[in-house]
Design goal:
Order of helices and strands: HEEEEEEEEHEEEEEHEEEEEHHEEEEE
Structural class: mainly beta
Number of helices: 5
Largest sheet: 11 strands, antiparallel
Strand content: 35-45%
Length: 393
């Protein structure tokens, strides 16, 4: 009987998976080739970042690294690896002047907001005016480049608020956005851990209560604003909850070289030592861009210009950078006992911070608990975004 029921459930689940594949917001990146290639700096000075990959913005993620050019135009820009120039674009908006270099390992680098291209590329076309919208594509073998070859001059063209180099890295086949830090982290100094400012408790409608209330609430960690490589911080205050509650976090990453703040690459939420939510902000399908407004609390951002990023998956979210348990990251406070919650934040270089706080389960007669049935209550399926369809009520 049990076996029969499981296979019936499995058949229904696979029907859902098939439908999900048809409407998914992107594909996993194609595997990079086994050909090893060396990556080098796109500039001839120390890299200092004004922005990093994956920072939440309204309706989109920041798609690359913003490299400071001392607020000046005219810095030389170099190809970060061997390959060939596959595209040149000119536009008053967007990337402005941009050059695309396709590499033999399955990736393409894009250099944006340029003042102009190197002479050998400028000679390939004729500009007609400041409103030019031009797009030139080239086959492999026509315009080969090596790592460190001069390809352009930095500028402030397109949608740019100041002189800098915006560098993106994409999977050539699927155009999935990749984190350039995976190739350039060894060139960027960073010994400062990400820092959490506060968390938000979000009782699920008609299913949860937090500190006696049904509405979302924010609580500061009260950590001093200091730059350290590793941080452990414990909130002495206790909280109460009953039923299903989601959490969100306001946090930023930093470096010692500048005042700028960045998005956090890795976030984990643990409950009693068990991971219920994890992010790895890399490999974002372009078609998933708008889901940043679902992952983050967009309405709160509109009022405050602060992003609280949810530590759970909203219904319908397909972002492959989010990984949760079968409760989709929602914490179910269904026992009258202390629950120990821990946030762990880590950047690409391994600098890490940890934040602990306790929430006491306190029965509330206004909330009627309902057990949520799942295929495997405690099993976590990592690295996929299809499994939410397998969770049953």
């Amino acid at each position: 009987m049990l076996k029969h029921s499981f296979w019936q459930l499995g058949f229904s689940a696979w029907l859902f998976v098939g439908f999900w594949l048809l409407v998914s917001c992107g594909e996993e990146p194609a595997a990079e080739s086994q050909e090893p290639i060396d990556y080098s700096s796109p500039v001839d000075f120390d890299i200092v970042l004004a922005g990093n990959f994956g920072e939440p913005r309204p309706w989109h993620f920041h798609g690359g690294l913003d490299i400071k050019t001392n607020n000046q135009e005219g810095k030389q820009v170099f190809s970060i690896a061997k390959g060939y120039v596959s595209r040149l674009t000119v536009n008053k908006y967007g990337f402005g002047n941009a050059i695309y270099v396709t590499h033999p390992d399955g990736l393409t680098s894009v250099y944006c907001h340029l003042k102009r291209f190197a002479d050998k590329y400028e000679q390939l076309f004729e500009r007609t005016g400041w409103r030019d919208t031009l797009d030139f594509r080239f086959p492999e073998g026509k315009l080969p480049v090596g790592a460190g070859d001069y390809i352009a001059v930095s500028g402030n063209t397109g949608h740019s608020t100041g002189p800098h180099l915006h560098l993106e890295l994409h999977d050539t086949e699927t155009w999935v956005m990749r984190d350039p830090m995976s190739k350039l982290a060894h060139l960027i100094a960073d010994t400062v851990a990400p820092q959490a400012h506060s968390f938000m408790a979000i009782p699920q409608q008609d299913e949860g209560v937090f500190n006696g209330g049904f509405t979302k609430q924010t609580f500061g960690f009260g950590q001093p604003d200091i730059k350290k490589q590793h941080t452990t911080w414990t909130l002495s205050r206790d909280f109460t909850a009953w039923g299903r509650v989601g959490f969100a976090l306001w946090a930023d990453d930093y470096s010692e070289a500048t005042y700028n703040h960045y998005g956090v690459r890795h976030t984990r939420l643990l409950v009693d030592g068990r991971e219920v939510f994890r992010t790895d902000v890399d490999s974002i399908p372009v078609s998933c861009q708008v889901e940043v407004n679902l992952w983050g609390d967009y309405q709160h951002w509109r009022r405050t210009r602060i992003w609280y990023m949810k530590s759970y998956r909203e219904p319908g979210m397909r972002l492959p950078i989010l990984h949760t348990d079968f409760s989709q990251g929602i914490v179910n406070f269904n026992e009258e006992r202390p629950y120990h919650l821990t946030y762990i934040l880590r950047d690409y270089q391994g600098n890490e911070s940890r934040y602990d706080f306790t929430v006491r389960g306190q029965r509330d007669s206004r909330i009627q608990l309902h057990r949520r049935k799942t295929l495997l209550d405690s099993y976590q399926l990592y690295g996929q975004c299809l499994w939410p369809l397998l969770t049953l009520r």
